[in-house]
Specification:
The protein is α+β, with helices and mostly antiparallel strands and 677 residues long. Helix content is 55%, strand content 16%. The radius of gyration is 72 Å and the shape is elongated.
């Protein structure tokens, strides 16, 4: 038995499908031929019917025309009209009828021709249709025969195909079974192969990992070996370096011992020289020393003649200055002196302090450090004058006889100037804000009053019983320990305590114009003078902080007015509380009065301790505050013949201006800042 494969089965199925499709197409063609034959037959029958109807219509028309002609002739004969008009009319009608008859005959002839032509056409068409029908029938018979043959072939092919399909299905079942068995065996082999492959991959990965680990171990071994070599080399280098360092250390120790011995000798020598210098200063208090002084510029042609001096390596009684410049001037015939700051001279004339506000501002504007420079300049000029200027090298064409009298007068006038409170800088250390109490903690740097000096001095301006809708009427000046451990002056005592520690507190009541006299009475006179000047200096210090744009929560004007109110209370209670009479800058010639304390002599000035630096620290030179027993509004003019001293009245007038009721610092605050700008 022949086994038919899937390809042959598909080919047989395709042939059967083609034969079936061909049978369907032949059936469709046969149906179409029958429909065309029926249509042609109906068309021929319709054409014959139409031709017959047309012939009948033409025959009817011809019969009607003949009848009409006969009727016309009969009418003409019956009437027998004699008149020519009737004859003419009849003749016309007869002609018309004849024409109509002729036209009808022509139409009949034409219709007959058309009918015959149409009949011929119909016959021809019918013959064509019959022929086409015969052809179509022949084709249909051929197609039917072919269809029968095809159906027979298809049936036979189907039988063969079914037999082949059955055989193929059986064969396919056998093949499928064999394939399933083979597939099962193949799957089992594939699983075994996958397991073997996984084992192989795992073994390979393990081998690779071991190889990598071995490579890493080898690299680490090489690295350790190289590191060991480097370490050994470094150790050798370090050993050599240590030996060298040990040798150098031994040499350094030997040198150090030698230096220590030399240091001891130098210390002994220094102590000997210092003791000798101290004995020299004690025996000669006015002695001073400087490396060099020279005149660097002389201006004798301007409206204010001047001499610019430069001093180097100055020392006197603990005051040491490396270098500074000052200037002496002549203005309106009066001598003056000042420092050179930023290349510009800032001089004042003692004679004009009371009459010229700018000179007063310059004098009061000298801070502690700047005043040391000025004191040193005065000491040097005083020494040169005492030595008759021997050994001093003057510039060419310098006329000492012209300048010497003014210098002598200047030295005499400077010695009569009062000792004032000065400071280099003021800072706002802290602002405290409580519901019923506030204070500003101020820190003065480089504070000095005469020979007394403080590198740092702290004071707090407090406000007690602060009102929610206003401020306070109760100022308090609180003086704590400096840095929490040093008494600021000898008679200081712990009057009260707060969170910041012990403090001396002086209370005021602005509404009653009184202050705490009991606390005031326990202070020494020198400490009273210091505290009095600090209170008078407070408004100007607050103005300086405002100018520095220090940030506080209240307007600075509120605190300034608050401090000014305390100053007014002191003015009111000056006599009752027996406040010390403060010094004031002279408004006229610097002549000593009963209430004026002279500037210490050069020997006394020399006892000031040497500053850490000769330049000012922080802000510009500090503000100087003086307290006057008499309001300095305007000085009364003096006669030129005889100088008059300034008299201090027992009590100032009741109606004094606001400017006159406070210390000299008030009218000079703005000009002082202007002079420093």
């Amino acid at each position: 038995m022949k086994i038919i494969g899937k390809a042959e089965q598909k080919k047989i199925d395709l042939q059967i499908a083609n034969l079936q499709q061909k049978v369907v197409e032949l059936e469709k063609q046969l149906l179409a031929a029958h429909a065309a034959q029926q249509k042609q037959e109906s068309t021929a029958k319709q054409a014959q019917t139409d031709a017959k109807a047309q012939l009948e219509a033409k025959a009817s028309e011809l019969a009607a025309a003949n009848k009409a002609l006969a009727d016309a002739k009969a009418q003409a004969t019956a009437h027998g009209q004699t008149s020519s008009q009737a004859q003419a009319s009849a003749h016309e009608q007869l002609e018309a009828k004849a024409k109509e008859l002729a036209a009808a005959q022509a139409a009949t002839a034409k219709a007959k021709q058309d009918g015959e032509a149409a009949l011929a056409t119909v016959n021809k068409t019918l013959a064509d249709v019959n022929k086409a029908l015969a052809d179509a029938k022949a084709q249909l018979d051929a197609k039917a025969k072919e269809l029968v043959e095809s159906q027979a072939a298809a049936a036979k092919a189907k039988q063969d195909g079914d037999a082949a399909l059955a055989t193929a299905n059986k064969t396919l079942a056998d093949v499928n079974k064999a394939s399933a068995d083979a597939k099962a065996q193949l799957d089992a082999k594939a699983k075994e192969l996958a397991a073997a492959k996984a084992e192989a991959d795992k073994a390979k990965q393990s081998a690779d990992a071991q190889a990598k680990e071995l490579t890493a171990l080898k690299a680490e071994r090489d690295k350790q070996a190289k590191l060991a070599q480097q370490t050994e080399a470094k150790y050798q280098d370090s050993a050599q370096e240590n030996e060298l360092l040990l040798l150098q250390l031994m040499q350094a120790q030997e040198e150090l011992v030698e230096y220590y011995e030399q240091k001891g000798e130098f210390e002994k020598l220094y102590l000997a020289y210092k003791a000798r210098w101290d004995r020299l200063e004690k025996r000669l208090p006015s002695y001073l020393d400087f490396g060099a002084i020279e005149i660097v510029d002389v201006d004798g042609v301007s409206d204010v003649p001047s001499i610019t001096w430069q001093v180097k390596d100055f020392a006197q009684a603990g005051v040491a200055l490396s270098e500074f410049s000052f200037v002496t001037v002549l203005q309106d015939g009066h001598p003056g002196i000042g420092l050179v700051k930023d290349g510009q001279p800032h001089a004042f004339v003692p004679k004009l302090l009371g009459a010229n506000k700018d000179h007063l501002v310059t004098f009061l504007g000298l801070g502690t450090t700047e005043f040391k420079h000025l004191t040193a300049a005065v000491s040097i000029l005083d020494q040169l004058e005492a030595g008759q200027w021997k050994g001093f090298e003057f510039p060419a064409q310098f006329d000492l006889s012209f300048w010497r009298p003014s210098i002598q007068t200047l030295l005499a006038q400077l010695k009569l100037l009062p000792a004032l409170l000065r400071y280099d800088e003021v800072r706002l250390k802290r602002e405290l804000i409580n519901p019923d109490y506030e204070h500003l903690w101020l820190e003065f740097r480089g504070l000095s009053l005469g020979a007394a000096q403080w590198k740092k001095f702290e004071i707090r301006l407090g406000a007690a019983l602060v009102q929610a809708d206003g401020f306070s009427q109760y100022p308090k000046f609180e003086i704590p320990l400096i840095d929490g451990k040093t008494k600021p002056f000898d008679s200081w005592y712990a009057e009260s305590q707060d969170d910041s520690g012990a403090k001396l507190e002086l209370r005021f009541a602005l509404d009653k114009n009184v202050f705490d006299v009991a606390v005031w009475a326990k202070l020494a006179d020198a400490d009273k003078a210091l505290l009095l000047r600090l209170i008078y200096a407070m408004p100007d210090a607050l103005k300086r902080l405002e100018k520095q744009k220090a940030a506080i929560h209240r307007p600075w004007a509120t605190w300034i007015d608050f401090a000014t109110g305390a100053v007014k209370v002191l003015e009111v209670n000056k006599a009752a509380a027996k406040l010390p009479a403060p010094e004031a800058a002279e408004t006229e010639a610097p002549v000593k009065t009963k209430t004026t304390k002279a500037l210490p002599a050069p020997a006394e000035q020399a006892k000031l301790p040497a500053p850490a630096k000769v330049t000012s620290t922080g802000a510009k030179a500090g503000k100087v505050i003086s307290i006057t027993a008499k309001p300095m509004a305007k000085a009364a003019p003096k006669p030129k013949a005889k100088p008059a001293t300034v008299k201090t009245p027992a009590k100032p007038a009741a109606k004094t201006s606001k400017a006159a009721a406070r210390p000299v610092a008030k009218p000079t605050a703005k000009t002082a800042r202007k002079a420093k700008a």
